[in-house]
Protein 1
Amino acid sequence: MKRNVILAAVSAMAMIASAQAANLSAPAVTEPAYVPPPYTWSGFYIGVNGGYGWNSGGVSVIHTEPCYYVCDSGSRWLEANGINHNFDGGFGGGQIGFNVQRDRMVFGLEADFEGSGLSSSARFEQKNWFGYATASSQLDWFATIRGRLGLVAYDNWLVYITGGAAFGGVQDSLNQNFDWGLYTKGPSQHEVLGRSHSDAFVGYVLGAGLEYGISPAWSVKFEYQYMDLGFTRLTLDGHNIRDYSRSPDSEFDSGHSFSTARVGINYHIVPQYAPLK
């Protein structure tokens, strides 16, 4: 009996040792390392942007027949014909778009809308005439619909060119202000002649940009655009002042082409990303 117990204990110990040896010889099982999906520009996105626009030749005023009693060079405006005045200001708005990525190429379509503070104004004095002219141009808003063609240059950097149709709301005005009292040396007697024009213009836009993906859902961009919305020409005929003097005829050209530089941020809607966790 005692012998049987000893044999059973020895057999159990041998079985345990054999099982442990088998465990030591089996390869260890480890969890695979997480590999994030490759960055993609494909999908819809929406964002905001802001920047600055400028044009060195926004307002140009031309005057013809500058008569005071008779037409002569002494009654011309102090500023020469064709003098330009800067057209500039800030803007801000939003954009929405869609991209498709094929290898390193990215094809997209984007639309944006901007509230604008771009404006230009000028005042023109005249010799031997008791008045002045004012001209102004204001871009209230602009929008674009553009195609985008990009190349993934390095890591999450996207370099692209863009172009398409542009739209903008512009207000232009031209006024003549004169004071007959300055001539008679009597009480001030102001009179104003004016014309204004407000309309939505259609043109084109070209540009280029650089965008960086800071995460699967967010990117920042830096973009330059050149936009041309045509121009406005207003004419204002002079008239006789108290049958003694005639105010000059005025012609006003307002160019609606300008450059913009902007910074923007986009939120991308991509399948791999669980937003707002």
Protein 2
Amino acid sequence: MYLFFISLSQIQIEKMVNFTMMLHPTRPAKKDGSKAVVLRVTNERLRKYIGIGYSCKPEFWDHRKGLFKKAYNPENFKELNNTIKLKIAKAERIVMDFDKEEKPFIYEPFKEKFLIKNEKKTVLSFFDYKIDELTKLGNIGNAEVYKVAKNALERFKPDKNARFQDITVKFLIKYEAFLRNDGCANNTINNYIRTLRALYNTAIDEGLISKDHYPFYNNHTRAGYKIGKLKTATVKRAISMADLKKIQDYQPKELSIEQDAKLFFLFSYYAWGINFIDMANLKWDKNIQYDAIVYSRIKTRHTKTFRVPIKTQLADIFDHYRNYDNDGYVFPILSDFHDTPMRKKTRVKTAIKKINNALGDIGEDLGISTPLTTYVARHTFASTLKNKDVPASVIKEMMGHANEETTEIYLKEFSNDVLSVASENLNIE
């Protein structure tokens, strides 16, 4: 039986097979200095190399991680690196299939299966393939993005036999018009078509379609469909201190969904704009200390640990939920039943929809013009500090953003009033 130790760039199989993504170590570089990106297969000290259709200059390759650096292609490097991860996952799956069939690892059959290209795969079936691969990688959120994009495409093109060669500039223009008529906003259309483009790029890598047919705009196909035109400025989502005071003073029925909605909103605001998914995963024994909330964000891959001081407002919310048994969770969102990433993802998605519906009702009852959602609490946290002269660099650290540019998305529409520093400024007056 094969035993796997999986990382982003390497899979080790019990002293027998080792997969590493790398630049070819012996083949000469091309004229532009780039080298072929290959999967190195090491079996019983023998090494073989399989090209995957990319080349890269050494300075644009992360040799430690076995991935492209951002400078290789700033716009699409994440999609390209995800393709590499899927190649690794494919290699793993082939060896697992050998194991199930009780076959020994032999390089030539492995290579044949690894390079196999299914020319008959349709766009919709390839969506399913991608969703399955992402799910196996544990990337549940990204898998959900592909599911939603697939559903949108199915509504537009019920022909289940559509191939990638059917996706042309004309096709994309009609698809955009359909989505617009279907009530989709620009940013939603942008997300659907960007996901379709990412799938198309993967299809090229898998040999399902030639890059000569590429319908999207880039440096080589300037007559292609432009996705960038769909981007629109982020709508201001923060609310005023007066509106915050209305929410704080609001008295919902005890044990109602409106009570949870109010407390979740205020908790996010006071806990440095914590995301709903991070709130849902908080546990009394793991994350709540006597004077601070200690956690790492689930949505991002960085390992930064947040330590949010427990002020009076947070302590009062904790006191409310300590009265209830939530299987060790702080909030009544997750339970022991949600024991897999998929179950957690599904539950959080359902819960946030209910909470946002309740917040919408609360906002209407209180006469707040901005539609209330849990995300408004996060924006309001950022804007409150900005309006009190807290530097964007400080807010960046408190929100867990990778860079200040991301923080500025939250802050760019807000005025710069008076007063002083960080979470001491969050009191609702």
Protein 3
Amino acid sequence: MAAAKRRTGTQSVQRISAILREVAIHNHRGLSSTEVAEIVDLHYPTAHRLLRCLVNEGFLQKEPKTKCYLLGPMTYELGLTARQHLTVRAAWRPTLVDVAKMTGDSAFLIARSHLDTICLERVNGRFASERVTLAVGDRRPLGVGAASIAILSLLPDDEVASIVRSNTARYRKHEQVSGAELRALVQRAREQGYALRDGPVSGARALSVAYRNPRNAEEITAVSVSGMTRRFTPRRQREIARHLINEVRWTQS
């Protein structure tokens, strides 16, 4: 029985690997589920089930118009993790250095990853706090933290509602916040142009501004400043927000 389970598990991994390789080869146009089944030599129901799973996990994405499958954001993020010199990090790092120097606090680059966010870069300022524990590579459910709120503020209401529903159970492990409270935070971020949220560790606070790439709607990043709560006075919050908004605009202009 155990040997049979191992064979089944290995077979599943091999099938998934084959699907990802073939989609990567044809990523310039994508592959339909029928084409995937034929190329990888799978029964259509099996191919369809695996494709749906890969989409749910972010390894593939389905193009709405053609219904073809393309590589998803998770494959990109894994590639970023594997490589040291990352284009996206290189593009944003001067901004983070400037923000950390100006504020004295820690500056972060956060990106959306399907139902999560991932920290791509961190630059510490001279007043960096040990209470700010987010590190490069850390993932959080989309909806947890200032960067998540800023990112959600750029999405349509129906997509926000779908994400909140999907992540509700996960929020309990991070923050005791309801869906209604999250939607209110998102609306406030839209009105202000930035998001403000207390950190998971008492005494820490973060302010974040998000940016959506006009050439790739799936690429949404946020620049955040995190530090001691006492340093985030109302006046200083407004100053940091203005600086972040200007920096994001300048970086992507």
